[in-house]
Automatic annotation (TrEMBL):
The lineage of its organism: Eukaryota, Metazoa, Chordata, Craniata, Vertebrata. GO terms for biological process: sperm axoneme assembly. It holds the Pfam family Ig_CFAP47. This is CFAP47-like immunoglobulin-like domain-containing protein. One of its GO terms (cellular component) is cilium. Residues 445-581 form the CFAP47-like immunoglobulin-like domain. It comes from Odobenus rosmarus divergens (Pacific walrus).
Amino acid sequence: MAYTVFSALTLDNVSSDCQASIGLQANIWHTAAGAISFSVKRRRDDDSQEDSDQDQCRVPSFQKSLSELFHKFDEEESDDSVSNFQVWYYLEIHSSPGPPVNIIEMKCLALESIYIEIPLSNPKEKMIHLDVQLSNAALNGFKQLTLHPLECINYVLQYSPATTGCRDESVIFQPDMAPEFWYLLRLTTELPKSTTVPEIQCDLGKYVTQIIPLVNPTHETLELQATNSNPENFVLDVNRSSQLTIPPHSIKEVSVHFYPSALGRTGHQVSITFHCTQFKEWIFHLSGVGLFPQPINIERITTYLRLQSSIVIPFQNPTKEDVLVNIVLTSLEKPRHLVIDRYWNSFFHETSAFKFSGLSHTQGITLPPKGNIDITVLFMPHIMKLHRTMVIVQMMRANRESWPIDNFDELSTEMKRTMGIESGEIQAIHWIYPILGLPQALHPKFPQVVIKCQSRKRIEQEVEVTLTGDFFGENPILDATDFVVIPKEYSYDSYEDIDDLPVKREFEYEIQFESEVMKSNLESCVALYMIKKSYHVNAKMIALVFNVVFAPKKPLRTQITLKIECITDGIWKFPITLVATEPDVDDVIDIEGIGLFKESTVDFRLTSQTRNPEPFTAYFLPGSDPEFFVKPQVGELPPFDTEGTVLLVGFKPRMYSRKYKATLAIQTPDMYWLYDINGLPQVTMPPMNVKAKIDTTNERFQSKPVRRRNIIRENAKLTRTGVSSTIKGVPLMLKNK
């Protein structure tokens, strides 16, 4: 920034005059502040350096005028001894901008981006470099430009505002070899454009979800609050207690759930408005169509033969009126005035396996708007075959008037036939809930199969199971060629093609595990396939022989279940117990002691058996001596193609001449290693060629003369019994009386 200011200072009370001028040129508006100093010096030959230093320390205040300062110095220094004089001025310069090259007026919408083009040209024969300054972060463009000689370009500027209103912004160009110039942008930002979301459709009694994308292309953070004009039919999935925050330059998706309350479009419109500090409203318009209910997804219920199980069907009155509800179970009675596709004919067969529970009556049940009722259906099969039924809920207006359908002309011919209508009204609305009941055979009474194998070895064992049931119905089984047994590859849980069943009965088998964790550990260790099948006509029994392959990697005891399912007959389950014992010892590690209460160690490396690192746990099995230790006890084994992790095993003996024993186990999710650890006593060598400190030959005793004793004479001299006698101290001679 350059300024042009000319100023002169003349000091009359010194012999030398001084004039100072400062050149400043202003090209743009600015406020600058700084200090300017003026200095006058005159040296005298007879002045000492000490006097000069003292005079330099005299600094007058810049708040006083020059005349006051000079008058003061005239009084104090009448002998004209001033040789060095300095004055400081504090200058504050205010400059206003020159006129802009052009004023550009633009209108835009909040949360949208517009592009502004500014023409630039270089009339000179030299290349020009320009620095660009933008007055607002909402403006986005290149900060540096280069114009080649005689080049003309359009500088493109992006403007992405969030705050509504009118404001003036500027774009300043600062060439390296020319004066600055700038453009004034007069920008008007209006409210965000309202958005109309495509119409959505949903069956009456259900709901569908519509996603609203909230795009924030600006540099500001939006903290939105939402208002909903129709919260009964459109539910906004946001936390009402907190704000909806959208970071700069990001998109956030908000879910809106549509719950129709009538057939057609009546009352199915909503305006969802978002507002924040930057703008007052951001509106989204949604609309929906309520459709005639289609059959609900098929529900499945399973229970043991001659035992009951239940399923609960929750029903809610989706309308805003009082209604009367009739409930029909198709396995007990056939509904009247209901047109239904032939696809569902098999659900109308009469059976006593299903019945209602907990309902005092099933006709004329009164429900208020949004009222609820739980329909409990019991299933108790008596034969092994698939059972089907339907729960049909018929809903009518309490005032017996027909339900209006305002989109009647848009319905297809097939839909009109299904609804049984010829005009824009319908007497009753029906909901259909299909139910499949699949019986499960009781567990067999014969002993449970147990397969036992040592870890890291492989065993194959044949398992024979028998299936009993009613195999003489549709597509009866007469011999083994009338049915197939295959591994289960997909599930019938959806039952979308329940009537599109194969001509031959299909029995699918699979292995079920106790948990997902056990499944992940055993899935690669257990395999099963059928090797033989037969059918006994008189006993109505199917015999299947499976070969079970069990190759455990570590010790365990668990139970798996062989599940056999036929969609037309039922489910059979056979439990199998798997036992994996301890593996053979991988290695024997001997550790020689170095002294009592001293640690001696041995280390070795170990890797995982896969290409990925695996966590491990190292511990001693029960019965191991407590003098042993292993480090680390937990960690991670690197892949098999690496050097491996170092494990340190040691022991600290507490007693001489004892052999210590332990069994070390190292376990990963897939592998199990076993090591026998022996703690050996310290090996010592006896001293050789060392002179004894004690004479062990007893030569002095052997050189003494031998003195012969007369034992008989010594005993004759005894007068009393000795200590070795049973009666001690008794005289040997009796006294005369």
